[in-house]
Each structure stands twice: as structure tokens, then as C-alpha cells.
Design a protein that fits this description.
Largest sheet of chain A: 7 strands, mixed
Distance between the termini of chain B: 79 Å
Structural class of chain B: mainly alpha
Number of strands of chain B: 0
CATH superfamily of the domain at 1-97 and 240-331 and 435-461 and 503-574 in chain A: FAD/NAD(P)-binding domain
Number of strands of chain A: 19
Helix content of chain A: 10-25%
Radius of gyration of chain B: 20 Å
Strand content of chain B: under 5%
Distance between the termini of chain A: 38 Å
CATH architecture of the domain at 1-97 and 240-331 and 435-461 and 503-574 in chain A: 3-Layer(bba) Sandwich
Order of helices and strands of chain A: EHEHEEHHEEHEHEEEEHEEEHHEEEHEEH
Order of helices and strands of chain B: HHHHHHHHHH
Oligomer: heterodimer
Shape of chain A: globular
Chain lengths: ~575, ~230
């Protein structure tokens, strides 16, 4: 058992942890970060191998060691889920993510007010828990800008200080300046999608991604190999935290990374202050780090789980939980999908960065009139492979053949042989409203290899608002598919309520300690030297991928700690 | 044709073939399976199933009978035809056998129980083991499992074992040959996948033609990096 002291301890060296470590370290603050996985290098990511990395999830948390369970409702027993966006190595999920990097819309931060203003209070589903964020797009704009430039994001502006620009996202919130890098190379699927969406009067553009379209900051541009989501980048063109902020943190000389370290408790004293964390080392030893500030930065599951497991007599319902909202209002994107197959062309969708290549934002957020549609909010609509990557195993598993074609046998073989190189997937990444009974708690039946209860999600997206939205968007996907000139367009069946991608919520931020877990600086209302940073704090989720917003919030929080908190420790930031 | 035979045949056609297009697809399978039966009849004593393993024929995990069952089953899921490599051509059973001896070691019991349940079902329905059934009969068994209608399964359930065999067959067809399947890139040739290419050009990305610029690359056909230089 080892004990060490530091100024700040960070749990998790991923999207949040890497940024906090570098920014605090640069300010002369001593940082220790705990990472449960290893620290890999770019050279470890070659060769690419679909079976190893995608099918067998070699870069993702091993669900046998770190199970996470799901049940549709509280009357059923939970079963194990696959890992998806969470990470298990230094750099976290950004090592294997698709690197899609959005700024949220202005109205994504004020869903409650903007819905009421436009449609009246009745438009909000009664059982939902939709609220405004305690911060605005304008608060985050400088930090979005910083993240895009420091990490390296490729894209084209669609709204420069209010001036709309064709070819960028004309629905985006105003940005102060252009992206640091031009958009990534378009592929055949993007080309066909672009022509079709224009014909339909929509506004297609290249999805902004934290992947270098040309050399930047001593890293090379993308080689378009196609082994992207679920894989580490073999040239370091993906702007993961592993190749961006962790080296920056190293250079401060104030940063120490402990790998193979599994945090099992956040320690607090009788005065109600956090005193540090305890962790298991790779040898099974039980160790601790004492720190003036504790920053929780794992995926949402462990943010919730660790706060629950760290309960004390003073905090009997778990840390940071005087509001009773810990573990509630959990959300996940709903994957609405369609497939388009072509007889007149090859698409070769196995080439290029796999995630959300080309897209339209016409049906996201409140970018279209929802009057009489029976639902609020929308989805980010894009052309993508059948699964998160585009190799033949993933495609065989996830491209459900059209109605009338079996899943096996000669007819299936002929279908797959013909269309593997001639299909495009269409995807509507659909926003999920928060509901208080979509939760994470401790599974009473399943434990991880350290004996800790597994995080358990109770979740079913199939509510009236969400169902109506999925149906609406499914039809839009079919419309786009037909306009692409496809020989056949079909929608696979939706799932049985399982959470899709980008799990968020569980430690929501707000302006009132009675109804939220943290304030706008991701700071616990109850324990001011405890910061809980990441998408677990998001009160609503947007149809956009969360990572760039997670990173912008991390920059903003780090800045507030450096400039204000350390000068006045214990104060609640406002 | 037994009663169960007839029922599972109906279940198969209903489970997989909905509407006119579906009926046609179902008919394709049946026609091809019958053609295979005739081929086998012509060669007389040809075994129902050939091993996917190497010359020695010994599996890494499965016993010979179970390996033959897995090979026959995989061949029904992805049947070969002239110019269209199937599971046998790709060595899918070899892939599965090696995986059960390695990465999927914890699934050995599932396979043993699942194979035993398949054979028990086949004995009840057709009075013979799966490997000795005609391809058309084998298809009926597979369809009954997919639909969850095959009886006598406990754990794994018929559907769960079908799904596992389908997933592992796809892995054996399309994973890199170092894992024991996708022999001579049979699976990749079938669908037109060029393997782990390190680079695609802008012209490749925009093309609407098949990608043929460079040969298919497997993990062991990559250009190896030079050995690291020694210090000093």
C-alpha cells in the first residue's frame, strides 16, 4: 500500500483528464492522474485488424473485467452490455472514437426555454425532465475554439460571426473563426449523399472531425485507411488525447500518470471535504492519493458508481447527492438507420474515416418546424457504414438484408457479395430527452473483478416522443436514399429499447443545488473541492456527438480552477 | 418426408421468405442445395463434409465429429458455388476450432452442448446426425434454429446457438487469414474487400468503380518495417 500527496488527483486520463492535466500542469499545479488501462503509443496501432479491434474490442474496456449491465425497466434482471464509447487506456475513448467533433447549437443549451417559446409548455413530454443548461453557447465558444485549434479539427465553417456560408453547416451557432484545417477528403458515399440532399433542398456538408486533413502540429494528415472507429490511428492523424494533450501534460513536468490504477473510492473527511482517492494497483495493492482537489473524469458509468460507492455517514446517499439526482436523467443516442444499395456504381464505403462522413443538419435540434409533428428535437443525419467501422465482419453482422432476403444461405451470400462494395448506410443520430427514471445505479447481482458492483443502466428509449421522432427520421432517411438513386432502400427493425451510443447524464449540472449534482463549472454543490467533469453532467444531449463539448467544458473548468478556485479554495464558483 | 420435416420446411419458408421476392430467394437456396445433393450422389462415397483443417485433419479444440458438424453447418450459412467461395473454401471450421482453443476458450461448453442438441434434434426429425443429412434437410434444421422452433435445446437455446454460429462463420469468412479462416482471402475475394490497406488516395475515395489498384493485403503480407536501428 502506497500513499502519495499531490495538489490535484484526476480519475481517468481520457477526453477530460488529459485536458485538465495539461492545463493545470501548465499553471504549476501538481497533478497525478489514475488510468485503469495502459498507455499505448501510435506504433502499437499497426497492424489494423478488424477481428481484433472491432469484433473482439481490443481497445475497449473488457466487459468480463469491467461489466456494465442494462435492463429495460426495474422489473427485469439486467444483462451485460458491450462497451462502446468508453475507453480503457490513456487517452480514453478518444483513442478509438470516430472523432466527430461538433459544437452544440445555441438551443441545445436551452431546450426547455426554446421549446416553450416556440411551441408552448405542452410540447414538453410530461414525464420528461428537460431543463436548460446553466451555461450558454456563448460561454463555451472560446473553449470550443481552443479545443478545435489545440487538438486539430477538420471542417468548414457554416456560420462565421453570423455570416452563413454554403458548404459548411448553415445551422451551426456563430463561430469566431474558421476551422484550423480544411474538411477531410470526400468519398463516393459523401458525393452521392451530397447530390441527393441538395436535390431535396437540404444543406449537406462534410462532418467536422478531429482528424487531420493535412499535417498539423508535427502530426501527419489522414491516410484514409478506413480503420478508424474502434481502432487507434496508425499515423497519429486522429487528434486523440493520447497524441495531443498527454504529451503537453508531460512537458509541464507537473504531471504523473499512474497506469493500471483502478479507483475504487473517493475519500472525504468529516468536514465534508474530499481528501483524495483510493485505487487498486495492477498488483492488486490498495493505494491512495491525497489531494487538495479531486477531479472525476472517467466515463459516466464510473462517475455515478464511484460517487455511490464512496458514501459515508455524512453522505449516506453517496457523494455529491444531497439533491437525490445522482444517477438520474441518463440519455443515449437512438440509432435510426436505413440502407441504400446501388446497381450502377460502387461505393467502397470501407475507405476513409468511418464515422458520419457527410451529413445534413436540417432535421436536428429545432432547425425545422415541429408544429403538429408530435415530438420535439431531432437528429444529426449522415451517411455512414452499417456499423461504426466498415470492414466485412462488422457489415455482415450489422447490415440486415432487405425484407425478403434471408440472413444466410446462397441468397444471403449473393446479396452480400454483390452489395458489400455497393451500399451506403444512412443514419439519424437521434436525440434522447432526459427522463428521471432513465438511471444508473449499482447492480446487486453483477460485480467486476475487484468485487465492486457493476454500474447498471435502467433505460428504454421507446417513449411516445422518441418513437414519433424515430419514425419521422426513418422516413427522411428513406427519402434521401431514394434521391441517391439507390436500387433499393430499406429500414432495418429498431432495437428493443437498448441504449445506443454516447451515454450521458447521471450527474447533471444546473443552477440550483436542489435539482442538480454540479454547477456550471462541474463542481459538486456539496463538496466544493470535488469536480465531476464529462458528459455525465449534460442536462440534455443534443443530436450531436458529445466529445468536443465535453472537451470545451473541461477547458472552461480548468481555467476556472486555475484563475479563481486555487486562489480561494473551497469556494463555490459562480 | 416426415411430418416434422414438412413442418420445419414450412417454418423455414415462412421465416425467411416474405412476399414474392422472398419466395424467390428461398427457392434459390433450395435449388442450390438440391444441386449439391445431386453432385454428392454422383461421386458416390464422397463424405458429407470435408475438414477445413490442414492435411492432418486434427482439430485444436473440437473432436473430429464436432468439427465436421461445425463445417457442415457453416457451409449451409455461407455455401460455396463455382466462382463464389463458401465457408468450406474459406476454412471457417478451422477458424472456429482455433478460436475455441484460444480467444473463445470460454465458449467450448456452449459448442459441445449446442452440437449435441443439433444432432439430437436431427435424429428426432430425420433419424440421422446433421452431417449426414442432405443439404436441403440441413437448411431446414438451420431455419428451425433461427426461428427458435427447433426443439430440445436448453442452453444454448436454438436461436442463440444459431446466432453464435452465424457470427463465427462471418468471422471465419472475413477475418484475416492468420486466424485460420478466409483461406487465400476467399471471403475477401467474395465481397471485394482489399484487406488492411494503409492508404487510399483521393481518386480511390471518389471512384465509383471496384478497387483494384493494389493487391489485397493480409497481416502477414504487409511490407515489414526495417529492424530498429541500434544505438551508438
Amino acid at each position: 500500500m502506497a500513499t502519495q500527496k499531490t495538489d490535484v488527483v484526476i480519475v481517468g486520463a481520457g477526453a477530460v483528464g488529459g485536458i485538465m492535466a495539461a492545463e493545470l500542469g501548465k499553471a504549476g499545479i501538481k497533478v497525478v492522474a489514475l488510468e485503469r488501462g495502459p498507455r499505448l503509443q501510435t506504433k502499437d496501432f499497426e497492424p489494423h485488424d478488424e477481428l481484433r479491434y472491432f469484433t473482439r474490442q481490443d481497445l475497449r474496456p473488457n466487459t468480463k473485467l469491467h461489466p456494465v449491465t442494462w435492463r429495460p425497466n426495474k422489473d427485469t434482471r439486467a444483462t451485460g452490455m458491450n462497451s462502446l464509447n468508453n475507453g480503457a487506456q490513456a487517452g480514453g475513448g478518444t483513442v478509438h472514437y470516430g472523432a466527430v467533433s461538433w459544437r452544440f447549437h445555441e438551443d441545445d443549451f436551452r431546450v426547455r426555454s426554446s421549446t416553450i417559446e416556440r411551441y408552448g409548455e405542452k410540447a414538453l413530454p410530461e414525464d420528461s425532465s428537460v431543463v436548460d443548461w446553466p451555461l450558454s453557447y456563448a460561454d463555451l465558444e472560446p473553449w470550443y475554439d481552443r479545443a478545435e485549434y489545440e487538438l486539430g479539427v477538420s471542417g468548414k465553417a457554416g456560420n462565421l460571426q453570423g455570416r452563413k456560408i454554403d458548404g459548411g453547416n448553415v445551422f451551426e451557432a456563430p463561430r469566431k473563426r474558421e476551422y484550423p484545417l480544411p474538411p477531410l477528403q470526400m468519398d463516393q458515399s459523401g458525393l452521392v449523399f451530397e447530390e441527393a440532399s441538395k436535390k431535396l433542398g437540404y444543406h449537406p456538408f462534410s462532418t467536422p472531425r478531429a482528424i487531420l486533413s493535412q499535417p498539423y502540429n508535427d502530426r501527419p494528415g489522414c491516410t484514409y485507411c478506413g480503420f478508424c472507429q474502434a481502432f487507434g490511428c496508425h499515423v497519429g492523424a486522429k487528434s486523440s488525447i493520447l497524441v495531443t494533450k498527454l504529451p503537453e501534460a508531460d512537458a509541464t513536468k507537473n504531471f504523473k500518470l499512474i497506469t493500471g490504477a483502478v479507483c475504487h473510492r473517493v475519500n472525504t473527511d468529516n468536514s465534508g471535504k474530499a481528501t483524495g482517492v483510493s485505487y487498486y494497483g495492477p498488483d492488486g495493492s490498495d493505494n491512495s492519493v491525497e489531494a487538495d482537489i479531486v477531479i472525476m473524469a472517467p466515463f459516466i458509468y464510473d462517475n455515478v458508481r464511484l460517487l455511490m460507492l464512496s458514501k459515508t455517514d455524512k453522505f449516506p446517499n453517496g457523494l455529491a447527492n444531497s439533491s437525490g439526482h445522482l444517477g438520474k436523467h441518463v440519455m443515449a443516442h437512438i440509432g435510426t438507420r436505413a440502407f441504400a444499395v446501388f446497381d450502377d456504381r460502387h461505393i467502397n464505403i470501407f475507405m476513409g474515416p468511418s464515422a458520419q462522413r457527410h451529413c445534413v443538419d436540417d432535421f436536428n435540434a429545432d432547425n425545422f418546424d415541429h408544429k403538429d409533428l408530435g415530438f420535439i428535437r431531432g437528429a444529426q443525419v449522415n451517411v455512414s457504414p452499417a456499423d461504426l467501422e466498415a470492414g466485412p465482419i462488422g457489415t455482415a453482422m450489422r447490415m440486415e438484408p432487405p425484407p425478403g432476403t434471408p440472413r444466410w444461405g446462397a441468397a444471403y451470400r449473393d446479396f452480400f457479395a454483390k452489395y458489400f462494395t455497393r451500399y451506403a448506410g444512412l443514419n439519424a443520430q437521434t436525440e434522447n430527452l432526459p427522463y428521471a427514471d432513465q438511471t444508473i445505479d449499482l447492480d446487486p447481482n453483477v460485480r467486476d473483478i475487484y468485487g465492486m458492483p457493476a454500474p447498471r443502466m435502467t433505460y428504454d428509449w421507446r417513449r411516445p416522443n422518441e418513437r414519433a421522432r424515430v419514425e419521422f427520421l426513418g422516413r427522411k432517411l428513406e427519402e434521401i436514399g431514394r434521391a441517391m438513386g439507390a436500387a433499393k432502400v430499406w429500414r432495418p427493425p429498431t432495437n428493443q429499447g437498448q441504449p445506443g451510443a454516447h451515454h450521458q447524464g447521471g450527474t447533471r449540472m444546473g443552477g440550483d443545488p436542489k435539482s442538480s449534482v454540479v454547477n456550471k463549472y462541474s463542481q459538486s454543490w456539496d463538496i466544493p473541492n470535488l469536480f465531476i467533469v464529462g458528459s455525465s453532467t449534460f442536462p440534455t444531449m443534443s443530436g450531436f456527438n458529445p466529445t468536443l463539448t465535453i472537451q470545451a467544458v473541461a477547458y472552461m473548468t480548468a481555467d476556472a480552477i486555475v484563475k479563481r478556485y486555487v486562489k480561494n479554495p473551497g469556494v463555490l464558483l459562480a | 418426408m416426415s411430418k416434422i420435416h414438412e413442418e420445419s420446411r414450412r417454418a423455414f419458408l415462412m421465416g425467411t421468405a416474405v412476399g414474392a421476392a422472398g419466395a424467390a430467394a428461398g427457392a434459390t437456396i433450395v435449388a442450390e442445395a438440391e444441386a449439391q445433393t445431386k453432385t454428392q450422389a454422383r461421386v458416390g462415397a464422397a463424405p458429407a463434409v470435408a475438414h477445413g483443417t490442414g492435411a492432418g485433419g486434427h482439430g485444436a479444440f473440437l473432436n473430429d465429429d464436432d468439427l465436421a458438424t461445425v463445417a457442415a453447418y457453416a457451409e449451409r450459412l455461407m455455401p460455396g458455388a463455382p466462382g463464389k467461395p463458401g465457408a468450406k473454401d474459406a476454412g471457417v471450421s478451422n477458424y472456429i476450432d482455433l478460436a475455441l482453443a484460444g480467444a473463445y476458450a470460454d465458449m467450448g461448453d456452449m459448442y459441445r452442448r449446442g452440437i449435441a442438441a443439433i444432432d439430437a434434434y436431427c435424429e428426432a426429425a430425420f433419424k440421422d446426425k446433421f452431417v449426414y443429412l442432405k443439404p436441403a434437410q440441413q437448411d431446414e434444421v438451420v431455419a428451425a434454429m433461427e426461428a427458435g422452433k427447433a426443439t430440445g435445446f436448453t442452453w444454448p437455446s436454438a436461436q442463440a446457438f444459431f446466432n453464435t454460429l452465424r457470427a463465427h462463420t462471418m468471422e471465419g469468412m472475413f477475418s484475416d487469414p492468420i486466424y485460420g479462416g478466409n483461406k487465400d482471402f476467399a471471403g475477401w475475394r467474395l465481397v471485394g474487400f482489399p484487406g488492411a490497406q494503409p492508404t487510399f488516395t483521393a481518386a480511390d475515395m471518389l471512384s465509383n468503380k471496384p478497387f483494384t489498384r493494389v493487391p489485397t493485403i493480409g497481416l502477414q503480407s504487409r511490407v515489414k518495417a526495417p529492424a530498429p536501428a541500434r544505438r551508438g
